[in-house]
Amino acid sequence: MRLSVDKEQLLKALNNAGKAIAPKSPLPLLANFKVELNEKGLEVTGSNNDITIRTTVPYMIGDKQIITNTVPGSTLINAHLLGDIVRKMEGNVISLDVIDNAIAKVDDGHSSFKLNCANAEEYPDIDLEPSGTDLTMDCQQLEDLVAQSAFAASTKEQRPILTALNLEAGENELIATATDSARLARKSVHIDSDVRFRANVPARTLIDITHLMEGSAAVTFYVSDKKVLFTFDNTVVSSRLISGDYPVTRSIIPQNFNYFLQVNSQELLNAMDRVAVLSSGKESVVKISMREDHVEVSARSDSNGSANEPIQTFQFSGERLEVSFNSLFVIDAIKALKSEDVTICFQAEMRPFVVKNPKDDSVIELITPMRTY
Amino acid sequence: MRLSVDKEQLLKALNNAGKAIAPKSPLPLLANFKVELNEKGLEVTGSNNDITIRTTVPYMIGDKQIITNTVPGSTLINAHLLGDIVRKMEGNVISLDVIDNAIAKVDDGHSSFKLNCANAEEYPDIDLEPSGTDLTMDCQQLEDLVAQSAFAASTKEQRPILTALNLEAGENELIATATDSARLARKSVHIDSDVRFRANVPARTLIDITHLMEGSAAVTFYVSDKKVLFTFDNTVVSSRLISGDYPVTRSIIPQNFNYFLQVNSQELLNAMDRVAVLSSGKESVVKISMREDHVEVSARSDSNGSANEPIQTFQFSGERLEVSFNSLFVIDAIKALKSEDVTICFQAEMRPFVVKNPKDDSVIELITPMRTY
Fold first, then answer.
1. Which of A112, A115, A278 sits opposite B309 (nearest CB)?
2. Helix crossing, A79-88 with A7-18: angle to 10°?
């Protein structure tokens, strides 16, 4: 295998595929990139078993020759080293020359590296061929879907199903739901397709994919029984699905509320951030006290003291109410809504409440209160 | 105790004194600031026993009233909390009101915090009065002195004396020396004083002090038997000295060399940074191979491979020579010299070599080679 390749395009592929490389791979072979030069171009594949990413550097981009001087072939090269080396090189064209399937010579015409490499046939056989139900959408739509929901997924492995973002397509709608059981986020987008599927994709994977997609226009995904495949530009991402049934969440979301608070998002964020300095424990518990003519947030810690701050711009309708909650959850929810104002709808002191963008019904952020001090 | 104080000035004092607060203080009381309003202003003191920092917020700066509305007194307030709160507050004037020596009310006219506080008399009695031999110099001079030497001090506690920067004043010269036994850095500056003293100041303390001094014009230090005091602007820093005799280093620095290499600093830095990707172990061993018409750096790792890169702009005089070294040490030394070109003077393959700024004899960076592979 041999080729000369545009440095910038090679680096992009290494950066993309590198997102799948685990800091400490359980399988030593997966510390490598699989690098293959074939009729499609230079395929760079990285994997950690759960997620596999392949980006292909094409021979041509527009009129520009990207790859020249080729002898097809494939090899395995340490991902961390190859990425570091290409990143630090100063030349615009990198040549890669695999000698006797044992040494990969990487050269930019100035610095010269000889890297030990391994036989590509030892790499696990990972199927990246599209199959199953497919759906194509704007990358921006998928980005919104993920940004407004995936943060609410659990990061703990006790109940693996809760680390998923639940995707449900049907009736021209794609709904994403995430919950860690103390909060829930749901976002729906309209789709121009009548496909129906359900899939539990690791939330972390979807967040990574939205970062990889930056600058791409459209993404197609293929859902099958055990895995989902995303394709955009020259990149394919395959992810396992999380097995098991996703909890039924539709019935959890309350429909009727007794109290409505509308506030400026930034003012509430700042006030909670300040008073939470005095909340105790990891949960950053903050209390919001509301009556028609006064709203304030407060926090208290037995060892340190207490804090309170009035909210200056608000509309509140309902009886007097006090609700305590994990302020980090409310901060996440408000940030995800990306709205100048938010409406918080309460049923009662100890019942789940909803944080909404008053102008957008496609997102619902549900949060369970905490026992007040 | 009560006062209203300009937020910006208060925050500056809290940030300065906060530099002395240990993340986990061995003495719980030292997790607090001592805050005292007296005839000098508002004194904020932070300490971790090894280093104590006090910044005084004055009543007036120029024509501007900084502190108003005063009742003198003192108290102890959790440093981390007070710093966080004042940093997050939006008002320009902060009022501080200590009630019954138990609660400190902190208020910016909008947010209101009540912090548990403790009796100032419980704070350790730390002497911040100037005494001993004194020397005044430009802050910039002290900054250069520290920046070009202190990095070479040891960070390991096995030989505490090597964690010091050794300061030696005499004959209108102040010399700073640091060594971790594998490398040594020495910088001298001219002083307008005929004082004589020797002091082993923790190198870390001096680095912290140069950061605190930013924007100040002159610094005075007072050296006594067990401690050193630095004063600049409204800040006093007291540090313990490290006891024991500093190793005699003068005889270590070679005077005669057989090989001289002059190179562009940035080119050598970049080349070493690249090839070091393939050095093995923590030491980042790089070899430099020199002959009159060719100089190159290289590195090798048994498990990963090898790298080499020629240096394009150089002057070398001497026989053919190869020297291996910890490239991180050479990178530190070159960066400290802040010079476009550097001269490296060698005696022999396994003898210490010196990295110098060809235009400045006040700094010497000495490095011990490593066994070559």
1. A112
2. 150
Region label for B201, one of left (φ > 0), alpha (ψ between -120 and 50) or beta (otherwise): beta
H or E element in which residue A294 lies: strand A294-301
B87 → chain A, closest CA residue? A274
A309: chain B residues, CB-CB within 8 Å: 110-112
Domain shared by A232 and A269, yes or no: no
Asked if residue A43 belongs to a domain, the reply is yes
The yes-or-no verdict on residue A23 having pLDDT over 90 is no
The string of pLDDT tens digits covering residues B100-121 is 989 999 999 999 999 999 999 9
The predicted model gives A196-211 an average pLDDT of: 95
Interface test with chain A among B277, B298, B301, B312, by most A beta carbons within 10 Å: B277
**Based on the domain organization, do A314 and A276 belong to the same domain?**
yes
Query: Do B144 and B233 reside in the same domain of the chain?
Result: yes
Q: Report the candidate in B81, B227, B306 with the shortest Cα–Cα distance to residue A275.
A: B81
The answer to whether residues B166 and B200 touch, using CB atoms and an 8 Å cutoff, is: yes
Q: Are A165 and A150 in contact (CB under 8 A)?
A: yes
Q: Using DSSP, how many helices (H) and how many strands (E) does chain B show?
A: 6, 28
Task: Report if residue A128 sits inside a domain.
Answer: no
Cβ–Cβ gap A111/B307 under 8 Å: yes
pLDDT digits (tens, 9 = 90+) for B177-230: 999 999 999 999 999 999 999 999 999 999 999 999 988 999 999 999 999 999
Distance from CA of B344 to the nearest CA of A (A): 22
Q: Any chain B CB within 8 A of the CB of A302?
A: no
Name the minimum distance, in Å, from the CA of A101 to any CA of chain B.
Answer: 14
Separation of alpha carbons B333 and A339, rounded Å: 51
Give the residues across from B134 on adjacent strands: B222
The CATH number of residue B342's host domain is 3.70.10.10
Tokens of A297: 């947030």
Range of the domain at B359: 255-367
Question: Are residues B81 and A277, on separate chains, in Cβ contact within 8 Å?
Answer: yes
A11 and A97 fall within a common domain: yes
Kindly state whether residues A236 and A266 are assigned to the same domain.
no
- Contacts A298 to B, Cβ<8 Å: none
| Residue in chain B nearest A86 by alpha carbon | B274
Residue A251's pLDDT is what?
87
Helix locations, chain A, DSSP H: 7-18, 79-88, 139-147, 203-212, 265-275, 327-337
Cα angle for residues B32, B38, B39 (degrees, 5° grid) = 150
A interface test, pick of B14, B94, B112, B308 with most A CB neighbours within 10 Å = B112
Whether residue A14 is contained in a domain is answered as yes
Which alpha helices (H) appear in A190-254, and where do they start and end?
203-212
CA closest to A274 among chain B residues: B88
Q: What is the mean pLDDT of residues B245-269?
A: 94
CATH number at A79 reads 3.10.150.10
pTM of the model: 0.91
Q: Do B88 and A274 touch (CB under 8 A)?
A: yes
Does A139 share its domain with A242?
yes
**How close, in Å, is residue A32 to chain B by CA atoms?**
12
Question: How many separate domains does chain A show?
Answer: 3
